[in-house]
Amino acid sequence: MNTISHQSEAIQTALEKYNQLAIIQMSPQKVLEFSKVASYAWLGRFDLLKHSCHHILEKPWAFKGNQEVTNNFFKIQYAHEKVQCLNVEVARLSAWVDHEDAHLKSTYESLAKSDPTLSPEILCMYEECK
Predict the structure, then answer these.
(1) How far apart are CA 54 and CA 42, in angstroms?
(2) What DSSP string runs through 38-98?
(3) N or C: which end of the chain has fewer CB within 10 A?
(4) Residue-wise pLDDT tens digits, 37-66
(5) What are the φ/ψ torsions at residue 97 (nearest 5 degrees)?
(6) CA distance 7 to 35
(7) Is the pTM of the predicted complex or chain greater than 0.90?
(8) How far is CA 82 from the centre of its chain?
(9) Which of 87, 7, 2 is nearest to 39 (CA)?
(10) Dmax of the chain from CA atoms?
(11) CA angle 97, 101, 102 (to 5 degrees)
(12) DSSP3 helix / strand / coil % (the chain, rounded to 5)
């Protein structure tokens, strides 16, 4: 589903206002239907915007290339944020592994005296982790 469909309520309101004004102009403009407007994919196909006095189609953000560059810029920004989050997660995981390693070692050492049959199993797990 494209962005235009997500904003359909706002577009319908603007379209109603446009259609009311279009028919009373000195040179009447054609009335647009929402179903046709909603099917447009790019700004350049909007008659509503083409005849705007704000020259919307000439704005830098209206060009597809600029939109793609902007999208890529924000994707890169997001990737940098994710790298920072992952660096925190790596540190947490490393700390957890170190903690588990220390726990296995201390468990082995305490069982070596109290339960000599179980301590070799713990030692085996400890050595597998290294």
Answers:
(1) 17
(2) HT--SGGG-HHHHT-TT-GGGSGGGSHHHHHHHHHHHHHHHHHHHHHHHHHHHHHHHHHHH
(3) N
(4) 766 655 555 555 666 666 776 778 778 899
(5) -60, -45
(6) 13
(7) no
(8) 11
(9) 2
(10) 101
(11) 120
(12) 75, 0, 25
Structure tokens at 125: 């797990």
Residue type, 113: K
Return the structure tokens found at 54: 């704000």
The helix-helix angle for 64-114 and 119-129 (nearest 10°) equals: 150
Give yes or no for a contact between 58 and 35, defined as CB atoms under 8 angstroms apart.
no
Q: CA nearest 126: which of 90, 88, 97?
A: 97
Residue 113, exposed/middle/buried by CB under 10 A (0-12, 13-18, 19+)? Answer: exposed
In the block, tokens 């700004």 appear at 43
